[in-house]
TrEMBL record:
<feature type="compositionally biased region" description="Basic and acidic residues">
    <location>
        <begin position="249"/>
        <end position="260"/>
    </location>
</feature>
<feature type="region of interest" description="Disordered">
    <location>
        <begin position="236"/>
        <end position="260"/>
    </location>
</feature>
<dbReference type="Pfam" id="PF06210">
    <property type="entry name" value="DUF1003"/>
</dbReference>
<keyword id="KW-0812">Transmembrane</keyword>
<feature type="transmembrane region" description="Helical">
    <location>
        <begin position="111"/>
        <end position="134"/>
    </location>
</feature>
<dbReference type="InterPro" id="IPR010406">
    <property type="entry name" value="DUF1003"/>
</dbReference>
<feature type="transmembrane region" description="Helical">
    <location>
        <begin position="146"/>
        <end position="170"/>
    </location>
</feature>
<keyword id="KW-0472">Membrane</keyword>
<keyword id="KW-1133">Transmembrane helix</keyword>
<protein>
    <submittedName>
        <fullName>DUF1003 domain-containing protein</fullName>
    </submittedName>
</protein>
Length: 260
């Protein structure tokens, strides 16, 4: 029965209780691979004591921590570079347009601004009514454009012909403003998308790697603490046995002395 409860560790070649170690087949693949990296001839049926297993468990924990830290630092560096990146230019639209504004463009803006106001409509309506009233009623003997007001039609046509391209010039400037704003929005959105992708990668690394590693590390810590507890119990048992033997030897010496 005692032989069935003991096994020989393939590392220190000492006999141990089965409860004080593990068979390689019962270990996690990562820990088993660490052991096989140093002992390629090890088999899954081999036994390893807790004292030697502790080394590889600590190596496994250290490897997972270093891997998580390395990946986190890599993502943080990418995020930092993305936030500090100045490889695009944000244009101040108003300042840029004001700096390049010519006299003709200022005039076109003023004409378009005035032509699209109620003041222009009121003044133009008053001029039309006054023109037609003066020429239709021959007021003060003035009759330079009789009905059907051919001169008025000619003037209106000339004004429309000149006003239309001036207003189009102002609309072209408005189109330039919209284009610059669109380019700024594009660059901002592009940078935001890049930063969001890195943040998603960081969250994915946290949920897919670091959290499972944390749970696995906690599991290994519990196993390591259990192994340490077993070794402490074994030390206490050895000290208790040694104290008991010393006490028995002392009693034996006292008995021999009393017999003499």
């Amino acid at each position: 029965m005692a032989e069935e409860q003991t096994a020989i560790c393939f590392i220190d070649h000492q006999k141990h209780m089965v409860i004080d170690g593990r068979y390689l087949r019962d270990l996690e693949p990562a820990t088993r691979n660490l052991i096989k990296s140093e002992y390629p001839s090890a088999k899954v049926t081999d036994f390893i004591c807790d004292h030697d297993l502790l080394k590889y468990q600590l190596m496994r924990v250290d490897g997972m921590v270093k891997s998580d830290v390395k990946q986190t630092r890599k993502i943080n560096r990418r995020l930092t570079r993305a936030m500090q990146s100045d490889d695009y230019e944000i244009v101040d639209v108003n300042e840029n347009l004001e700096r390049t504004l010519t006299m003709g463009q200022r005039v076109s803006d003023a004409v378009a601004r005035f032509g699209g106001s109620w003041g222009f409509i009121g003044i133009f309506t008053f001029v039309l009514i006054a023109w037609m009233f003066v020429n239709g009623a021959s007021l003060f003997g003035i009759h330079f454009d009789p009905f059907p007001f051919i001169l008025l039609n000619l003037g209106l046509s000339c004004i429309a012909a000149i006003q239309a391209p001036i207003i189009m010039m102002s609309q072209n400037r408005a189109a330039d403003r919209d284009r610059m704003n669109s380019e700024n929005d594009y660059h901002v959105n592009l940078k935001s998308e890049h930063e969001l992708r890195i943040l998603h990668a960081k969250l994915d690394n946290l949920t897919q790697n670091q959290l499972p590693h944390t749970l696995e590390i906690q599991k290994l810590e519990i196993e390591i603490l259990g192994q340490i507890r077993n070794e402490l119990d074994e030390l206490h048992r050895e000290k208790a046995g040694q104290f008991s033997n010393d006490q028995q030897d002392g009693e034996k010496d006292e008995k021999e002395t009393s017999d003499q």
